[in-house]
Design brief:
single chain, 8-stranded mixed β-sheet
Length: 430
């Protein structure tokens, strides 16, 4: 594809993303490229990079284009991202040349607005803090409560692209063997600093096309997510519930730590997500997992009260900790979401806790940065449920600094992971 055709495709994709504001952008992008298989891998990467740049710069681009008649459009947003990235207006005009597969010529209003950006930087000293740091205005007091004077530093760390983290599957071999396997496929991976199973790659790479991935030697999983599994510390032979399992990312890691021995029940309210786990479990060589769909009126939880050694509640949350990977999530999030999620999280935690046997462990986790979804939820749970107490994580699946703690809050700035929270609770022995 020509540069003009790539830009035109990026604008079309951005239009599709804007037309489905509550759908994750990566899902829209996957559908877009699936319907256009003639777009090659190299072109897809260039188009995706342009879109993800625009999504990361969303509030700042709109601030620069605030005076354009009719407001910013996908055309002007993509063009402004180029201009504020250092391109000359003449180069941008040539990309809107009206030729086959290219966008039509810039209108006089578009041209004037974009020409005014010449020589300007993306970050402007006159920008309000939430605009410059790319979060909604209503979220500011939440972030102040979470970070205090570190707010700006923490949010700036969410602005960049995340590295690609993998987990070596110890059911198929050690981490060093996974590194060698990837190296044989011209992919260089280095050990992550915290997770004993983690591997890190610089930027996006086509790992799903590698033999290492197809054979289940590696899985894609952020280092912080791996540490949540470490906090659960499930042992071989135990009975474990992954209560909000989704497509099974943490379930896979739990099974690995249990050496495929014992029983894991992966629960979720979404049948498609649970069905999506089947292929992953098979590829990883996991065979001690059963799946259970949680539906309204289901008696499964009640009938298995006190039956499990470990229960993981990876609760649905705002996802603020994943904004490096999902920059569109900060655009879609509204305050009502956070309010409703808090009620849902408390209900899930209450129900899941009944599954824990006396002396058993309950881990509550989110990929949120917000105190309201994290510490406040745990404190409220303990206040209404005196059968549980916080305990040190211990075990040998966490790095030494985290073992003595009853949980952790990870951030891109402090830990170079996505934002994650985990609290380790234990049901008191009767």
């Amino acid at each position: 594809m020509t540069p003009a055709a790539r830009l035109s495709a990026a604008i079309d994709l951005l239009c599709a993303i804007e037309a489905a504001p509550r759908r994750p952008a990566d899902a829209t992008a996957n559908a877009y490229f699936r319907d256009r298989r003639y777009i090659g891998g190299g072109d897809r990467r260039v188009i995706s990079a342009r879109i993800w740049d625009v999504l990361r710069q969303w509030r700042r681009l709109h601030w620069h284009l605030r005076d354009i008649p009719g407001g910013a459009s996908p055309r002007t947003l993509c063009a402004a991202s180029l201009m504020l990235g250092g391109e000359e207006i003449g180069t941008v005009r040539n990309l809107f040349n009206g030729e086959r597969f290219a966008q039509s010529h810039l209108t006089s209003r578009e041209d004037a607005a974009l020409s005014a950006l010449g020589g300007k930087a993306l970050n402007d000293p006159d920008m309000p803090g939430p605009v410059r740091l790319e979060y909604p205005d209503w979220l500011h007091p939440y972030l102040e409560r979470a970070f205090g004077p570190e707010l700006e530093t923490e949010m700036a760390a969410l602005d960049g692209a995340a590295p690609l983290d993998l987990r070596a599957n110890l059911l198929k071999g050690h981490r060093d063997e996974a590194i060698r396997s990837l190296r044989n496929e011209q992919i260089t991976a280095t050990p992550t600093p915290l997770s004993p199973w983690g591997l890190r790659l610089p930027g996006r790479q086509p790992v799903t096309a590698t033999q290492s991935f197809r054979e289940g030697i590696i899985e894609i999983q952020d280092e912080g997510s791996q540490l949540i599994v470490g906090a659960l510390d499930a042992k071989p032979g135990e009975r474990v519930v992954d209560f909000c399992a989704g497509a099974g990312g943490k379930t896979l890691a739990i099974a690995m730590g249990m050496e495929n021995k014992g029983q894991i029940v992966a629960c979720d309210v979404s049948s498609p997500r649970l069905e999506g786990a089947v292929k992953r479990l098979r590829r990883a060589g996991v065979h001690n997992v059963e799946r259970h769909l949680l539906v309204s009126g289901d008696k499964w939880v009640k009938r298995r009260a006190g039956a499990f050694d470990r229960v993981l509640v990876d609760a649905p949350c705002s996802g603020t900790g994943t904004w490096r990977r999902n920059p569109d999530a900060r655009i879609r999030l509204v305050e009502q979401d956070v309010i409703e999620l808090q009620t849902k999280q408390a209900d899930i935690l209450d129900r899941a806790s009944t599954l824990v046997k006396p002396g058993g462990r309950l881990v509550y986790a989110t990929c949120s940065l917000l105190n309201e979804e994290n510490e406040a939820q745990v404190s409220a749970f303990l206040a209404r449920n005196d059968r549980f107490e916080r305990v040190a994580a211990g075990g040998d699946m966490l790095p030494e600094p985290l073992r003595s703690q009853s949980g952790f809050a990870l951030t891109p700035h402090r830990n170079e992971t996505d934002g994650f929270f985990a609290a380790v609770l234990q049901r008191k022995a009767q």
